[in-house]
């Protein structure tokens, strides 16, 4: 087994792409588990199609023998519909459990899992904002079995919302950038909910620091701190020079908006965010 061989799920996503690019640049051997092999991956990253059967997945993982498995693949729904349930359960619980079953059989392999601050509504140790957050907690509970009973070295990092350049997701910052560029009016909630943005480069750094730490504790990665959506919009306009036409209160809030600073775990050893929010926003238009 290579000392630094990474098996990465979610490598075609926003954070996952940044992670595999960084791993390859740092000299790791990087294999990306993908559902389709027609995605363009960064140089130095090898695509490995996810087998349809668990026995084939276990054989593939045994053959690759990673030193670290970074599990970023997820099915995200801010507010779910009934038809979302089956794919969310399969992606967030079924696939992850099969992967843990495979990785635990690789001697000395480490399993790096990603959670979300959405597991901590109203600053509770556990209170899910959404069904998505509940599935993330359920998978963390499954990993407790693999850690305590099967001896898997589990490392968990809970992330706040991420942002950065070339973000293809239907997320807040790309939405603001598009609205600022074309002058589209924005119908928003009352803007009192809190948001804490961590730059994608800092998220990658936090994942690597988590992977290097002793297994067991759950770590957290956050940015400058939680601010209201109204303050974020003001800082976005100041940093980017874009003007937003916002109609506050035109949209209803989600059932469980984050209105209090949430509990977050300690940062991984040696890590702190290096990209300040205003600097990161300014760089998006430079």
Keywords:
single chain; 286 residues; alpha/beta; Rossmann fold; UDP-galactose 4-epimerase, domain 1; 2 domains; 7-stranded parallel β-sheet; two-stranded parallel ribbon; 8 helices; 36% helix; globular
Characterise this structure.
- The protein has helices spanning 14-25, 54-64, 85-103, 131-148, 172-182, 200-212, 229-240, 277-283; strands at residues 5-9, 29-34, 45-49, 68-71, 110-116, 153-159, 161-163, 186-187, 194-195, 197-199, 218-221, 227-228, 246-247.
- With 286 residues, it is of the alpha/beta class.
- It has 2 domains: 5-162 and 198-221, NAD(P)-binding Rossmann-like Domain (Rossmann fold), CATH 3.40.50; 169-195 and 225-261 and 275-283, Alpha-Beta Complex (UDP-galactose 4-epimerase, domain 1), CATH 3.90.25.
- The strands form 4 sheets. A 7-stranded parallel beta sheet has the order 3-2-1-4-5-6-11, sandwiched between helices.
- Helix 3 (85-103) runs parallel beside helix 4 (131-148) and helix 7 packs across helix 8 (277-283).
- The protein is globular.
- The N and C termini lie far apart (43 Å).
């Amino acid at each position: 087994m290579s000392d630094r061989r990474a098996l990465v799920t979610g490598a075609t996503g926003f954070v996952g792409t940044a992670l595999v690019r960084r791993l390859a640049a740092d000299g790791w051997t990087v294999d990306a588990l993908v559902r389709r092999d027609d995605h363009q991956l960064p140089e130095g990253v090898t695509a490995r199609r996810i087998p349809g059967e668990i026995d084939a997945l276990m054989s593939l993982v045994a053959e690759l023998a990673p030193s670290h498995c970074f599990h970023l693949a997820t099915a995200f729904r801010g507010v779910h519909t009934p038809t979302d349930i089956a794919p969310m359960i399969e992606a967030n619980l079924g696939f992850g459990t099969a992967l843990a079953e495979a990785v635990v059989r690789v001697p000395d392999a480490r399993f790096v899992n990603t959670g979300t601050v959405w597991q901590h509504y109203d600053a509770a140790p556990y209170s899910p904002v959404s069904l998505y957050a509940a599935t993330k907690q359920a998978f963390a509970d499954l990993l407790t079995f693999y850690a305590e009973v099967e001896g898997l070295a589990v490392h968990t990092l809970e992330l706040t919302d991420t942002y950065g350049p070339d973000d293809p997701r239907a997320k807040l910052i790309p939405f603001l950038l598009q609205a600022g560029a074309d002058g589209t009016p924005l119908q928003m909630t009352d803007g009192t909910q809190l948001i804490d943005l961590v730059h994608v480069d800092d998220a990658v750094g936090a994942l690597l620091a988590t992977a290097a730490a002793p297994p067991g504790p759950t770590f957290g990665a956050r940015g400058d701190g939680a601010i209201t959506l109204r303050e974020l919009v003001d800082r976005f306009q100041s940093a980017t020079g874009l003007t937003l036409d916002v109609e506050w209160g035109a949209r209803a809030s989600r059932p469980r908006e984050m209105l209090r600073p949430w509990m977050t775990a300690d940062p991984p050893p040696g890590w702190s965010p290096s990209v300040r929010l205003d600097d990161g926003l300014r760089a998006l238009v430079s």
